[in-house]
Amino acid sequence: MKTVKIGSVGLGRLGYEHAKNIATRVPGAELTAICDVAADRVREVAEELGVKYQYTDFAEMCANPELDAIAIVSPSMFHGEQIKMALDAGKHVFCDKPLDTTVEKCKLAEKAVEAHPDKVFMLGFMRRYDPSYVKAKAKLDNGDIGRVILVRSYTQDPRTTIEGTLKFAPHSGGQFLDMCVHDIDLVRWFTGSEPKNVWGIGGVFEFELYRELNDGDNVACMMQCENEAMAFMFAGRASAHGCNVETEIVGTRGTLRIASVGTDSMLEVMSKHGVCRECYPDFLARWHEAYTNEMIEFVSCIREGRKPEVTVYDGTAVSEIAYRCKESFECGEMLPLRD
Ligand code: NAI
Question: pTM to 2 decimals?
Fold first, then answer.
């Protein structure tokens, strides 16, 4: 089967992780090109990973006829236009979340995907490829916990990585879009339903920049779905103990709970503080396997001529819900998903 030659754009926190995975951990793929506006970074990563083509201009990379696919891991506000450029250049496209930073731009991405039905498009909702979440979904689909009553999902980033987070915050689309997208995706995936009403709340508990952005550094949202399932999400930027992501699905016949406390090994440290287990230091450590698995799925889809489960429409739906949560946070009232 043909090797899929990939050009990857964005070499920041997650972009470097994807580039490295493509170069070293994804069977049937080759990291043939990389692009970033920071020329030094491009040179450095190209040297480390042995990449043939280096670009600082995305359009130039898309014009390379050797490339079969493009991975987009640039800042979120560029996603829609880069998706269109890559598809129009005849490439398959993987794009990390969110689809873009406005619903209007998400719709443009939808149009671009629809105009190229022969191309694979995949959005990076990587939790769906994390082994624990995959297992939970299989049990749910098997009827093991009956009907879903409640999904509770927490995403807490450690304060140790706050410096990079604050730089990223102004163009992230806000907490509900940037952080809650994964939890919103899980709610839709696990309940098989769309939210009917959302109530976004939150505040600025530690990092004043979020107030300037009309946002909260810790936010939460309660939802009621069309099928009566309930959901509660919490996204925080001030976790003392590390990257903590936990999800609980309460059903009529049982409960599934994933990672109440994240830990990256079986090590226990016994000291005057008691018995401690160290947590994942950041999102890259927590989701390392999921990031690899989603890229393996993208490449397999191209090689096997099939489409991934996560679609461009999931991207728009999640963004619409996230923005409605933000509106609710701003006005302080519970809102229907659509007026
Ligand atoms: P970052 O800020 O660390 O890196 C962004 C990189 O893109 C920088 O190297 C910058 O020089 C480069 N860049 C900026 N404008 C560019 C342009 N026009 N063309 C090419 N390169 C450009 O950002 P980070 O954290 O790596 O995030 C990138 C994307 O990945 C975002 O959309 C973010 O939402 C997403 N992400 C997803 C996560 C997940 O769990 N799925 C986790 C972290 C980020």
Answer: 0.96
